[in-house]
Amino acid sequence: MATERIPAVFESRDSRFASIGGDAELRILFDDGRWLEGPAYSPQGRFVLFSDIPNDRVLRYDELSGRVDVWAHPAGFTNGRTVDAEGRFVTCEHGNRRVVRTEHDGSTRVLADAFDGRRLNSPNDVVARSDGSVWFTDPSYGILSDYEGHRSEEEIGSRNVYRWHPDAPFTPVVDTLTQPNGLAFSPDESLLYVSDSELRTITVFEVRGARLGDGREFCSADTVFDGLRVDTAGRVWAATEEGIHVYDSDGILLGLLRLPETASNLEFGGPQRNLLYITATSRFYVIRVKVEGARRH
Known about the structure:
By secondary structure, this protein is mostly beta strands. The chain is 0% helix and 48% strand.
């Protein structure tokens, strides 16, 4: 088990960043990954599941014991995941080109694997809304090569954001992005933020029931955006090549937490939701911060 600690480097870009910070050090909880992704925290179990995509395994970090163990292998080259309002994990599988939910009895339910008779590309990241719906991105990263999945041809012909609900038609809600990746709802679920890793932008959409309004650019940067989370004040936390960028709700970059490697995703956990878990290229980090993460359902 990794126990290394490194200095936490917070860089302010706006005076409003003064209230954001945390511990002086980042703890490295795991350091043997090839490309770590998809952290999701279980409040009931006090653990985090995260993916090591090229190694085709899911890892489990126990918050109480500090242990990291293999949860599943092989694992369908899983990427992003979330926990819904009932405490069930919802997971994107690159290799199987589908989104699945782990039920309370341990069984797996396939929520989506095709649209209009054609296979999905490679579902990447997912969020659950309080109305029981599941929203996920479907870029092509998992079928571009055999590194994060299985090389395959695109069948749908676009990279979309989808909404699934047990009582509604499965449908795309965004078809205008190039490579949609991370996504997160605002604390009141009235807005949906979606990163586009190829365009290097985050777009924000107004949520109108089962549909979205026209998107507008929330922010752009000279770095690749990946996973997203939102805190209770509505600030957007984005995983980037530099580390974690923090944007105010007006789209202004407040500051960043620098990392020595590319950050892929992040998750707020702990009983107070102020433990920031970060997956990066090879390492899994945690730092206690001065903000509280918004619940994602």
